[in-house]
What we know:
Elements: E1 3-14, E2 17-28, E3 32-36, H1 43-50, E4 58-63, E5 66-67, H2 72-78, E6 79-82, H3 94-104, H4 109-122, H5 138-150, E7 156-160, H6 168-183, E8 187-192, H7 195-201, E9 204-209, E10 212-217, H8 219-226, E11 229-235, H9 241-248, E12 257-259, E13 264-269, H10 272-285, E14 290-296, H11 300-308, H12 321-327
Parallel strand pairs: 3-8, 3-9, 6-7, 7-8
Antiparallel strand pairs: 1-2, 1-4, 4-5, 9-10, 11-13, 11-14, 12-13
Helix pairs in contact: 3-4, 3-5, 5-6, 8-11
Bound molecules: adenosine-5'-diphosphate and magnesium ion (MG).
Amino acid sequence: MQHAFDLKDITKHFGAVKALNGVTLHSDEGKVFALLGPNGAGKTTIVRILSTLLEPSSGSALVHGLDVVKKPKEVREIIGLAGQYAAVDEFQTGFENIYMVGLLYGLKRADARKRSHELIERLGLSKAADRQVKTYSGGMRRRLDLGASLVGQPKILFLDEPTTGLDPGSRQSIWQIVHELIDQGTSILLTTQYLEEADELADTIAVVDEGKVIAEGTSDQLKSRLGGDTIEFQLESIKDLSSAEEVVKSVAKSSPDFNQDTLVMRIPVHNGSKDLMVLVEKLNRAKLNVNALSLHRPSLDDVFLALTGNRTQSQESEQPKNKKRMKR
Ligand SMILES: Nc1ncnc2c1ncn2[C@@H]1O[C@H](COP(=O)(O)OP(=O)(O)O)[C@@H](O)[C@H]1O
Ligand SMILES: [Mg+2]
């Protein structure tokens, strides 16, 4: 089977900045591959190299077997690219934006119109189609940008942080569109700062940090490396310890950790939400009262802690822009 993309020992230097330091990765056709990493990790640089916007300093990059440096035109014909900063024209309507892209792709007017209507419908933007984009929300812009990347019916789609900074509802609607594309067999390379997003969409995840791949695998493989989900609760009394230990046995995948001072018990589990329900039921049956029962899933912070042993500084500045603004 042909690889959707194939990177061999790619480096990219911008003057003194080493953005990529020998990245080797590939993905099969029809699969979803996620690059997970904090700001400045090199994700966008990888996407820009694969989409012919940037030449690597060394190494080889193929898209569907085509060399991105030697055959950029052929590569551009089979790819779609949607970015973190939606490249849409504010003063045109949603419909006009997609229609223009259709014309740029060389579609006849009637075909461009038909294709635009189809895509607008599929993106759930029908009602807003004739409004100027400047009236759109962030989520709507992102959907429109995604629509524009689909006009050329790409074999492989690059999604650079498709949901960074979006509210949960808008994120869900992007995910839904991506799921439909996956079902249709489109190969996808997406970048994200959220483990949850990689988990939801990707077959394989590569964790990238400082221009290097520091881990690669399925979501389950990465999570088990990270220790996976844990359930936490606090006992009301130390006297309950032995009965609590008995109750948690059936859900714990390895021995729980208990803090004598805080009375907090941490239980590693296989399937957080399912095990949480089972545990609640058992605690009730055993008439055990506990406080602050909660489920913890590995976050991107946990990934980096586990993989690098320190918290990368750049993550501090990684908050989605609008979140930061809200805080001020
Ligand atoms: N055009 C450029 N000139 C100089 N440095 C750049 C350029 N593009 C990216 N970089 C640097 O390369 C590194 C990787 O950036 P990028 O690929 O955008 O990371 P990410 O998308 O993971 O946030 C960063 O240190 C960034 O500052
Ligand atoms: Mg980026």
